[in-house]
Each structure stands twice: as C-alpha cells, then as structure tokens.
C-alpha cells in the first residue's frame, strides 16, 4: 500500500522539528523515570532461530509483540533528532515490546545511505550503527528491511534510474529491478556491504550480531508486469540464496503483503479484491523456498477496500490472519509474521476507538495461535513515533502512550504472551511492573 513515509519542509529537505533540549524535556515529562533505566553492559542476546513453525530463543518459544519505526536511521543522522531513537526504544521496552522493524536502506534520496551503486555515505552508515547499538543496549531486536518496492527512500525505481543513467539498463520499467542483470549485481553488492559491515560502535559485524532479529528482502514487493509471478519468484530465490551464503545466522523473510496469486484457490476466497491476484506475487509460492525462514503479511483493510463497512473490514482482518496462519501451520511449516498492520485516521467518521478495536482483533488472533503453539509468530503495528514528530507521521502512525486505552491494549498483549510461554526477552525485567495485577 502507498503510505507517506515522511514529510518534507518547504525547501524540500527532511529536517528535525524539535531541538535537543526540547526532546529531552519531553522525554522526562512524559516518561518520568524512563531515562534512568539503562541497560548498558547488561544485555546478552542470543540469535532467534526457527524450529518448524515456531520462533525459538535459547530453547524457548518466542512470540513477538513488535512495531514499526521505519525512521530510525534517518533521524539518527542528526544529533538533535537522535534522542528520538532512544526515547522510542526505551518506551517500547517499557511496554514489553521485543522487536522493531525499520529500514536499513536509503537509496539516492536525502540522507542517502547508498549515494550511488556501491558508494555509501559513512556518516549515514554510522547512524545505522548507532541504531543497532541503541537497540542492543535496551535489549530490543531489529527486523531490517533491505530495499523498498515503493519510491520512498529511493526504492527499486532508484536502482533502475542508476542502471539507465549508466547506459546498462534493459528497461525503464521499475520492475526491471527484478530481472536486469546489472541491477541484480547492484543489489547484491549493496546487500554484501550491509551484511559484512562492522559496527563502529559495537565492533560487531552485522551478520554476527544477534540484535538483528532477521532480514527482509524488500518491503511490499509487486511485479505487475509479470502477473504469473515467475519473475519475482526467480529474484526471491536468487537473492535469498545469496544472502544465506554470506549470513547463515540470521533468519530471512520476503516482505510480502500476503496476496494469493493467480493459481491459488484462495485468490477468490481470501484475497481482498480481484486485483490482488495480478500483482505478480503469491504468498505460498514466494514463502516456500528453504532459504526463506518465515512468511510475512501486511494488513491494511481500509486501503484494500473502498466500499466495505468498518464491520466488514474488521471481519476481513480476522479471516485474513487465520488463513495465513493456517498456511504456516499446514502448508509452509514456518512462522507467519504480520509485519505491518494499520487503520487510517482519514476514514470518514474515524474514531480512535475503532483503531483500538482493530489492534485488539490482531492481537487476539496472535494470542489464540500462541496458546496452541501455532505459526502466528507475531505482529508489528504501523507505526509508532514519539511526541513532536507530527510532520513525519502518516495517517496510520500513533504515539502509543498518548491514548490510555491503546497503551493498555498493547501492554496487555505483551503480558498475556509472556504468561503463556514465559519470556526470553531482556525487556522481561519490565514485565513485572507492566503486568502486575494481570497475571
């Protein structure tokens, strides 16, 4: 789905809204003793692994209450906006959240990590180092996405522009990202640089760092020029094999929205509408390769349906999730992660209580799967921010502690997941306070 990844100022530049002092003041006022909770030199993380359709850490089941803050690396570039990363991570730990999904790419855009093919801005790379180090200190893991299907932060379109400008591109279609040999080399070089990067803060190569939960090949891939799905499937198989040849410690997912393709019997019974089968993707086929460790799904009912009532959309959410978890349990034998879910506040008659109900439905489905040790491995709300970031928000983002009922739903989900299987997350030290009276 098309979302606004960030806002720009009048001069077109991405700039921090609040100064360092006001950020710090806000954090102290809003979180009280939160800043006093530091985990330096105390966190020992293990790699998350897969056992069939379950995630495991140190031999224990691991179900995830996570969130998206795509903006971490971008905001870490500037010292006056860096405190937002720590504030978000510490607030998340206080809510019992365990994994954050964020971008490990910015291709040719403002604050670009990759300025041109194979050329990197060290200043921005050190910002990503900082994000990983901060997450490690708090004990929260990161799911890092490697490129965007959309144009935001460059995306596959930027790769095509690079190839075209250098006179080696086969086509100006942005779908040539998936089949152009020159672009495939560009992307492989990028991926290798990321995986083998030695963090300037921790001294650990990314591929050896258990702070990284796993890698995501591409955010929301679509290849509409080949609705058969063969082009995208070939790319997934090639790139996932390449990544595993460099990094066999971390898990890998595709980054799918979860649509069923033309040959799937579920295209008519589960897909949101008829168009979804023509996106050149297929949830089962794309998630099946042995080099893909877990499946990914997104949930945006108000983007996928234009004429369905709220009740109808919420009913769809439950059915959509159950279908994919069933696929994980019975067909793929892999965990399924709902790596983005959101409800727009631009809907006519929107009330925050509607979003609360949406979150509750998503969490209930994950909880029911967790109770049965099922494949529903976790969910990630799109998106969480800290106060003062209104200009970087879209119509899905929230500051979760601003609304007491929403905060209670999120933390309550952390508590009941921990109650079922215990918790192997370092943020478990927060759960006794969070969950007092719930257990």
TrEMBL record:
Taxonomic lineage: Eukaryota, Viridiplantae, Streptophyta, Embryophyta, Tracheophyta
Coiled coil: none
Annotated organism of origin: Centaurea solstitialis (yellow star-thistle)
Enzyme class, broadest EC rank: hydrolase
Location within or outside the cell: Secreted
Residue ranges constituting the Glycoside hydrolase family domain according to the UniProt record: 46-384
PANTHER family per the UniProt record, alphabetical: MANNAN ENDO-1,4-BETA-MANNOSIDASE 2 (PTHR31451:SF45), PTHR31451
Principal subcellular localization: secreted
Molecular functions per Gene Ontology: mannan endo-1,4-beta-mannosidase activity
Protein name per UniProt: mannan endo-1,4-beta-mannosidase
UniProt EC number: 3.2.1.78
Keyword tags: Glycosidase, Hydrolase, Membrane, Secreted, Transmembrane, Transmembrane helix
Signal peptide: none
UniProt keyword Transmembrane, yes or no: yes
């Amino acid at each position: 789905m098309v979302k606004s990844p960030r806002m720009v100022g009048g001069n077109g530049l991405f700039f921090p809204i609040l100064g360092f002092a006001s950020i710090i003041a806000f954090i102290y006022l809003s979180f009280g003793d939160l800043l006093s909770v530091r985990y330096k030199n105390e966190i020992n993380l293990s790699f998350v692994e897969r056992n069939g359709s379950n995630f495991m850490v140190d031999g224990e089941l691991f179900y995830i209450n996570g969130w998206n803050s795509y903006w971490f690396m971008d905001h870490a570039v500037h010292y006056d906006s860096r405190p937002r990363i720590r504030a978000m991570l510490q607030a998340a730990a206080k809510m019992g959240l365990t994994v954050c999904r964020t971008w490990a790419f910015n291709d040719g855009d403002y604050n670009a990590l990759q300025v041109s093919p194979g050329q990197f801005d060290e200043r921005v790379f050190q910002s990503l180092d900082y994000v990983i180090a901060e997450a490690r200190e708090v004990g929260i893991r990161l799911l890092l996405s490697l490129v965007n299907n959309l144009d935001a932060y460059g995306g596959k379109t930027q790769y095509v522009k690079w190839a075209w400008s250098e006179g080696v591109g086969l086509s100006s279609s942005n779908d040539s990202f998936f089949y152009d040999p020159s672009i495939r080399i560009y992307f492989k070089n990028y991926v290798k640089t990321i995986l083998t990067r030695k963090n300037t803060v921790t001294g650990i190569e990314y591929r050896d760092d258990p702070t990284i939960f796993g890698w995501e090949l591409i955010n929301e891939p679509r290849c509409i020029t080949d609705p058969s799905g063969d082009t995208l499937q070939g790319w997934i198989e090639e790139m996932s094999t390449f990544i595993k040849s460099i990094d066999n410690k971390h898990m890998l997912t595709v980054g799918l929205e979860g649509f069923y393709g033309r040959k799937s019997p579920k295209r008519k019974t589960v897909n949101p509408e008829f168009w979804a089968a023509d996106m050149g993707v297929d949830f089962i086929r794309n998630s099946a390769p042995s080099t893909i460790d877990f499946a990914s799904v997104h949930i945006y009912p108000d983007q996928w349906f234009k004429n369905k009532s709220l009740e109808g959309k919420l009913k769809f959410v439950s059915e959509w999730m159950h279908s994919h978890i069933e696929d994980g349990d019975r067909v793929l034998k892999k965990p399924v992660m709902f790596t983005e879910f959101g409800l727009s506040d631009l809907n006519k008659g929107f009330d925050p209580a509607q979003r609360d109900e949406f979150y509750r439905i998503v969490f209930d489905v994950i909880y029911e799967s967790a109770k049965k040790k099922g494949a529903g491995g976790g969910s990630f709300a799109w998106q969480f921010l800290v106060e003062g970031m209104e200009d970087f928000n879209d119509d899905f983002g929230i500051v979760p502690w601003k609304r007491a009922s929403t905060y209670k739903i999120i933390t309550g989900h952390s508590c009941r997941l921990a109650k079922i299987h215990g918790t192997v997350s370092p943020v478990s030290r927060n759960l006794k306070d969070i969950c007092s009276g719930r257990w």
